[in-house]
Amino acid sequence: MAKLKIGALPDDKPVKLSFELPASVHRDLVAYAKALAGESGQPVSDPGKLIAPMLARFMATDRGFAKLRRTRHSPTDGQE
Description:
Blueprint: H1 23-40, H2 51-60, H3 63-72
């Protein structure tokens, strides 16, 4: 079986957001939840709980975003 990009879901205090997904994205999210449950052996009761770790993984691996964060949080900010 292929290694999925996200692992076990962390138990963290959530921030409530409401948004709409295209039906095709929702179907893929449900399919991903089933694949993750098969790989981890733990059922995913709510596929929506996968959205946060997926977004976190996406942002963590986005080189452009990482570069932007480094330049905006550089030690010289506000010192010139």
